[in-house]
Amino acid sequence: MDDQAMTATKPEAERHGIVGGYVPERADWVIDQNWQAYTAADHATWKTLFDRQVKLLPGRACSAFMDGLRDLPIAAETIPDFEKLSDVLMERTGWRIVAVPGMVPNDVFFDHLANRRFPAGQFIRNPKELDYLVEPDVFHDIFGHVPMMMNPVMADFMQAYGEGGKRAERLGVLERLARLYWYTVEFGLVEEADQVRIFGAGIVSSFSETTFALEDASPNRIGFDLKRVMRTHYRIDELQESYFVLPSIDSLLEFAQTDFAPIYDELRDQADLTPSMVLESDKVFARGTGAYHAALAQKEHG
Ligand code: CO
User: Fold this and answer.
1) Which of 87, 119, 178, 247 could bond to 100 as cystine, CB 3.0-4.6 Å?
2) Which pLDDT does position 142 carry in this prediction?
3) Whose CA is closest to 296, among 230, 212, 179?
4) pLDDT at 174
């Protein structure tokens, strides 16, 4: 039996760290960032991505993100050195960055977060496909996530997510918790000074989604409600159809301290919601036209 047949007949192997034939050297999947090995082309790709985001983000990203970016050793010219980032981050919020080759299995991911280690993709995307990402790369993970982790509330929330993730997996409700992460850490919006701003890493690291999330007429922008969000499916391969707006970054603190078990119980019999749905009970900041995703569906179905 060859390797491929082995993995095909043993789905269990996937959960234990053999994804696409990749066998990690270490159980925690951590690798050396090997900063010296980045090429001039790698750094140039970073610079292209960096320059276009820093032009777009002032006035769009929330102040916690902008402050974090300012205070970290992240600059245009080169891909950051994870050790130098970790020195600053450790002092501020007790987190470290560790390099990983790409996506890691859930249990590995949760274990890192629960121990205040953020696993960041070591590689950078292909410059020919600047806006297409199969897996989170160093630009998404570092530029997108790390500035917010300089914020003590986000720092605690991420650790709580790691702890809660292991539990949710045992309870068979990981999907619910993953939606909370998706609609906050990855695609969250927040009210600030009477405006809606971005804090989600998936948005701040994406050229097209930065303006789409805030200014396009297509998506819904809905006030954040924990149970509602836990019921809402999301798009993994496309721009979001709905974004949720937190009243403040500090409101994440409450979620870091909440025992979700009673909420999981309460939601057990409630139907899931599609990403485009708007409910009577929603606090609607902007009702989307849905035009973007309608056009996509038309293209897909002819
Ligand atoms: Co991410």
Assistant:
1) 119
2) 98
3) 212
4) 95
Measured between alpha carbons, how far is 4 from 1 in angstroms, rounded to an integer? 8
141 burial class (0-12, 13-18, 19+ CB within 10 angstroms)? buried
Q: Phi/psi class of residue 32: alpha, beta or left (left: φ > 0; alpha: ψ in -120 to 50)? A: beta
Q: What is the dihedral of CA 215, 220, 222, 225, to 10 degrees?
A: -130
Spatial separation of the C-alpha atoms in residues 5 and 178, rounded to whole Å: 31
Rounded to the nearest whole angstrom, what is the distance from the C-alpha of residue 274 to the centroid of ligand 1? 22
Across the range 273-291, mean pLDDT stands at: 97
- Phi then psi for residue 212, to 5 deg, are -60, -50
As a whole number of angstroms, the distance between CA 214 and CA 16 comes to: 39
Ligand 1 centroid – CA 202 distance (Å): 6
The pTM assigned to this predicted structure is 0.91
Q: Which residues contact 82 (CB under 8 A, 6 or more apart)?
A: 33, 35, 97, 98, 99, 120, 142
Question: How many angstroms separate the alpha carbon of residue 237 from the centre of ligand 1?
Answer: 13
Query: Is 177:223 a contact under the CB 8 Å cutoff?
Result: no
pLDDT of residue 14: 40
Distance 110 CA to ligand 1 centre (A): 13
Q: pLDDT tens across 42-67, in order? A: 999 999 999 999 999 999 999 999 99
pLDDT tens digits, 114-173: 999 999 999 999 999 888 777 899 999 999 999 999 999 999 999 999 999 999 999 999
- Within a 10 A sphere around the Cβ of 146, how many other Cβ atoms? 24
Do the beta carbons of residue 162 and residue 112 sit within 8 Å?
yes
